[in-house]
Amino acid sequence: MLPDHPEMLAHRDIFSSVRESGGLFADVADRKRLSPACARAMRNIFRDWRVPRHQAAAVLGVSLYTWSRIQNDNWRGCFSQDQLTRASLTLGIYRNLHSVFDQALADQWVGLANSGPLFCGKRPIAFMISEGILGMYWVRRHLESLAQGH
User: Taking the alpha carbons of 106, 58, 68, 93 in that order, is the dihedral positive or negative?
Assistant: First the structure.
C-alpha cells in the first residue's frame, strides 16, 4: 500500500489525467499546474529513499542548485516535459516498491546492489541515472511485473 504522502496521493490522478489526454506533459499550462505538487512529491520520495543530493538531481534531470531550492521549498519554477516524465516514472517506481516490499525495504531498494539481469550488480539508482528515462521506464516495468506476481 502507498505510504501516506498526501501530495502523492492527491496528485496521482492529475498525472493519470494528463497522460490519458495524450498530453504527456507537453502543455505548458499542465506543467505549471503540476510542477509545485511534483516538486513536493519528489522531495518526499528522495528523502524517503535517502538519496544523496547529486543523485536526486540527476534522476530528476535538474541542476544541483535547482534541487537544493526544491529541497528547501524555495523553488517556484516549471518543470520541463522531460523532468515531469522523470517525476512520473519516479512516482510509479515508488508506488510499485511499496506494493512489493515492506516500508523499510521499499525505501532502501534503490540504493542496494541488485544482481538481477536488468541491473547486473548495479544499484537501481545508479542504473536509472546512467540509463536515463528509458532506464527509469524499465525499472518501473520491472517493479510492475513483480507487483503483479511475475
Answer: negative
Name the maximum alpha-carbon separation found in the chain: 42
Tens digit of each residue's pLDDT (9 = 90 or more) over 34-56: 999 999 999 999 999 999 999 99
Give the DSSP per-residue string, the chain: -----HHHHHHHHHHHHHHHTT-TT--HHHHHHHHHHHHHHHHHHHHHHT--HHHHHHHHT--HHHHHHHHTT-------HHHHHHHHHHHHHHHHHHHHS-HHHHHHGGGS---STTTTT--HHHHHHHHHHHHHHHHHHHHHHHHTT-
Domain ranges across the chain: 6-147
CA angle (46 as vertex; 44, 51 as ends), nearest 5: 150
Which bin fits 75, alpha (ψ -120 to 50), beta or left (φ > 0)? beta
Reported as a single tens digit per residue, the pLDDT across 72-109 is 999 999 999 999 999 999 999 999 999 999 999 999 99
